[in-house]
Amino acid sequence: MTAGSESVLELLPLVFADPGEARARAEQVLGAGPPPLHASVAHQVLGIWQRDFGDLRIALRHLRRARDLAARAESADREADVLATLGVALVHAGRTRQGLASFERGVARGGGHTRARVLYRRAYVWWVLGHHREALEDVRRALPVLRQAADDIWTARALTLRATVHLALGAVERAVADFTAAERLWDTTGQEHDKADAVESRGLAAFRSGDIPAALRLLDEAEERYAKLGTPTYNLSIRRCEVLMAAGLAPEALVEADAAIALLDRIGGQSTRKAELLLAASWAARSAGDAHTAIARAAVAVRLFAAQRRTWWETHARLVLLEARVAAGRRSGRMVADAAAVAERLASFGSPAAPQASLLAGRIALALGWTADAERHLAVAARSRHGGPPPARMTGWAAQALRARAAGSRRGVLEACRRGLDVLDDHRMTLGASELRAHATAQGAELAALAQEVTLAQGSPRRLLEWSERWRATVLSTPPTRPPEDPALLSGLTAYREIAARAEAARMEGRPVPALEREKRRLEREIRSRTRHMGGAAADADDRFDAGRLLDRLGDGRLVELAVVDGRVHVLLCGQGRVRRFAGGSLAEAVAEAEHVQAGLRRLAHPGAEARLPLVEAAGRRLQELLLAGAVPHLGSGEVVIVPPGALHRVPWALLPALRERVLSVSPSAGSWLRARETPAPPDGPPVLVRGPGLATGGAEVPELADRYGAATVLEDDAAQVPRVLAELDGACLAHLAAHGTFRADSPLFSALRMADGPLIVHDFERLARSPYRIILSSCDTARLASVGADELLGVVTALLPLGTAGVVASSAPVNDAAVVPLMLALHKGLGAGLSLAEALRDARAALPGDAVHQATGWAFAAFGAA
Q: Where in this chain does the record put each CHAT domain (predicted)?
């Protein structure tokens, strides 16, 4: 081969080192009227580029031309190499039979080193098709030859592929060993695209090992590398969807999958990738509770996989399709048989999803009353409870719990639920970000619900309380992992604050700037990603909820925990050394009534809506009937703590007639209240008073409070900037923040208080070493929370409670700025007299004028915690 030929052949490795440069140089070669051999290489390079990053139809034209030119050049190895590349493209186009035939000709034409490269690419195709044993066999044949030829690039590719196949079969340790060996080889090459792929693969290995933060970090790093090369990331999107779903972020996974599908359709990309993305989208939609979207996506995926002769993938898509149909309410004997057949096929493939299919068959059989069939399928699924990754073990424990319930063993149900939730706890504590911990709890919802059903039937209110606490507000049990002083995160938060302030100013002037809004969303994604990279720490084994300790701490007070079982509210009244249960109403009715109340409070925040006051008060009486019912006569005369489920966190509890005159506080869980009660107060220090910009009253209470306290630290005007505010809040005994509040239902950790330099967001609070012992948020909507996961709440209040705050006063609705001022002044008067936040807030409400605006303002605020 001539020196010129060697130069042209260098374009082939370049397409995976610098794809854009390889494409440009290949086009230059063709423009120079090259001989057939050189032209064959150039067309092959352009075909690879289009196959992986562009239009598959154009790719096939280039590759067929490259094949014909290689034949004209009478180079058997050149022809074999092109035939292998063409075979990959044909399979990705869904023409599986033609693709495999091209490989047969390539293996026959090539010899030695070239044949080993052909075998590697056929192994890749076997993996795409889900034929894992065939893939491992071709890699086994190719690797010794590639090593003997000292071909580091192709050896690393073969090791990476073998590792990926091992992961598909659940052999994580083997996969990690191969990934490690491949990465050592990649470090000796300039193959930047292959290096990015290696990082992506390590992300997948981390996920399979159960380390979701590391998986997200590595996938983000791979995406950054691909972005520098200007190459699309369809496969990475598929993998990220899988990780996001395991983290409980199914809606986010669905958005990513659908966006990748749209891009693939727009450029005419690989049919195989489209099918895989459709499978990811259907799985995400089913996990997000959108059964109809899941059915639509999965049905198309099944058809595509079948046409592509990809049985392994088709079977997985059939599993999601069946699960979505069950979620949509369909049940039949045929579906039991179909689920069992899918389980058997998955087991024959060695797929980790096989127990999931057996569990599905058992569920359907139970719903049909086929107990013998259910037992058979559930017994198979239950085998996975003793080994494998956390999702597989939880599947096994769910199956075991259903078996026990079918057999009438309440003790067996509770034991299985306990063991399954223990697995979830261990998994949840590997996550450092509170957002991920909260969403991950959704995986335990069924086990917790089963346990509550059984304990309700047993008639033990105390046990029902313990199981209600077992899965309620678990994210508050330990603080989120504080990141090290990450310069990139700090830089991102600062940039976000500046851009958000500029965007808001533009909106208020009536001239929103789209570019600022786009940059704000980009920075949100960056901040969210970096916080998700944090690993967790082990939970404190002594921090489990203890009902006896709760009853001791309550003294003369009462704690009312509202448990929801099968859509009905059950009132668990704790006090006087015991737990009693009272039947409440429908949860759906209570949620609807709470929404009516919130709408009424919003209107009452403005003068002129006095006619709404009787309607709001009537709704409060109806809420009392639904949520407290027969417990009202037993509330005693002491303090009352309300622990509502996530769906009822916006109820203005002070509006309920039986609670209006009481010392009243709210807590996300009984365990959270206990921790707040036992949180030691820091040494007395001057209160921190913060006044943000743009308030209708100018934060009029702050100057008066500054005069009252004398030695207070006052931050206002340019001094009320986020870095200074955070520095003063850290470890403070008492803080009062008068600022505009905004709640983000779509992304609760970006809920904010407006400071002089921009928003102070929940992510900022989570950087505090210790949040203020008591904090008063004189703002709209600061007590609003997003209900996520099983029964978790995310927002400003729940960010503060695990960080050392024992008491918060905040509002669950928009409030009238002018009416807030006398309420806050009266509240601080009570604190100055030595009262708790709940006591002071009760007295402050009573001191307000009797008009509708002031009454609504008082009801909108609540005391959280126990300080």
A: 618-865
